[in-house]
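ok new one. same drill as before - structure tokens go in, u give me an amino acid for every spot. 390 of them this time. try not to just spam alanines like last time pls lmao
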């Protein structure tokens, strides 16, 4: 074993629990998925350090890790919830001050936080929301101009009629159904892209469950195929490894044999098909689709076959745009988050431009480190970085 020495910085030497605590363990799992759990399993079985072993056993006792009948480690819902809460906290620490905390619309009644302003009372408005100051002012002003029933101008008693009453405006919250499409193609492993996407997915899951319980959120991963990602599986999901390196690929695969084909292509077309089916079952007043990707489609569906085409083929682009247009016509709002760390990444933004224009949606061009900010601000405040209207 080689040793490396450096100047002592005066900091206290970390204890094993600080080097290998829950946060470090969860970051390890987020970064490497199932492979991380397998490594931890081997560590638990073979480690000679009683302190590390004790820490792992303590996590099992605390209900953060679980062992199956065969002794395999699994994340518990408690651990997933803790990871989600930590991700949400990190995201909001980085959000700019002044971001609004919801997708609201102005309406009278008791739907949310009070806002500045009132409206004339209408039959059915709750009496508890009467604005007494404005109502009294209206009655006094009316009484000064048109004294009735012997009341003297500006003196008691003040007599009210229906036209004087005003009620307080509230920010009424509207329900929203969201599907987040996450690119699982091989290139998402670069530059920490997928780790950033996974963190924002975890944060959004706990945000919707705690802050907007009337909303629904679903996650779909798209690669050579597409599949729903259950919330409990988010920490372990990983991009598909690249298995072929040919300069040109033209594959036609039956749908029922897709699992045997290379998995690292980008089938946004199938992802959108799945998103549409999910949103048809949801009851939200508003429906939106978020797309997190780092490249244009390299796969699409035709009948009972999936075509895997590299370099990107116009047929895949056309099929994907057609599916997006169908979703937009069904009332879905599109937000596309294009990850562009690669210097050559600008070659594919033309596809994002087409998608955004066609769906009248919003496009964000961002590095992985800013992804969480963009997604959260789009979801919470509707702030648009780039939009096309009409």
């Amino acid at each position: 074993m080689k040793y490396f020495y450096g100047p002592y910085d005066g900091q206290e030497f970390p204890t094993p629990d600080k080097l290998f605590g829950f946060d470090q363990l969860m970051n390890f799992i987020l970064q490497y998925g199932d492979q991380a759990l397998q490594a931890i399993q081997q560590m638990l079985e073979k480690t000679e350090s009683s302190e590390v072993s004790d820490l792992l056993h303590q996590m099992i006792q605390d209900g953060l890790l679980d062992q199956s009948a065969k002794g395999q480690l699994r994340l518990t819902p408690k651990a997933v919830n803790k990871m989600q809460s930590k991700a949400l906290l990190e995201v909001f620490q980085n959000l700019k001050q002044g971001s609004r905390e919801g997708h609201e619309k102005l309406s009278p009644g008791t739907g949310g936080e009070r806002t500045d302003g009132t409206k004339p009372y209408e039959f059915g408005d709750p009496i508890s929301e009467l604005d007494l100051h404005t109502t009294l002012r209206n009655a006094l002003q009316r009484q000064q101009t048109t004294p009735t029933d012997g009341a003297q101008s500006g003196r008691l008693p003040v007599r009210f009629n229906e036209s004087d009453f005003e009620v307080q405006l509230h920010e009424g919250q509207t329900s929203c159904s969201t599907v987040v499409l996450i690119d699982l193609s091989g290139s998402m492993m670069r530059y920490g892209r997928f780790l950033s996407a996974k963190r924002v997915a975890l944060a959004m899951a706990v945000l919707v469950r705690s802050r907007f319980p009337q909303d629904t959120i679903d996650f779909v991963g798209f690669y050579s195929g597409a599949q729903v990602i259950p919330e409990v599986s988010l920490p372990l999901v990983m991009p598909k490894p690249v298995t072929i390196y040919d300069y040109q690929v033209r594959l036609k695969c039956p749908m029922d044999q897709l699992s045997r084909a290379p998995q690292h292509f980008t089938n946004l077309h199938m992802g959108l098909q799945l998103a549409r089916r999910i949103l048809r079952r949801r009851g939200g007043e508003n429906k939106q689709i978020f797309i997190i990707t780092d490249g244009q489609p390299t796969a699409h569906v035709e009948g009972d076959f999936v075509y895997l085409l590299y370099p990107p083929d116009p047929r895949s682009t056309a099929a994907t745009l057609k599916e997006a247009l169908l979703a937009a016509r069904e009332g879905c709002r599109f937000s596309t988050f294009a990850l562009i760390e690669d210097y050559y990444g600008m070659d594919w933004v033309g596809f994002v431009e087409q998608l955004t224009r066609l769906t009248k949606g919003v496009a964000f061009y961002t590095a992985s480190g800013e992804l969480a900010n963009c997604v959260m601000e789009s979801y919470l405040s509707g702030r648009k970085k780039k939009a096309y209207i009409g």
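The chain has a mean pLDDT of 79. and btw The first strand starts at residue 65 and ends at 67.
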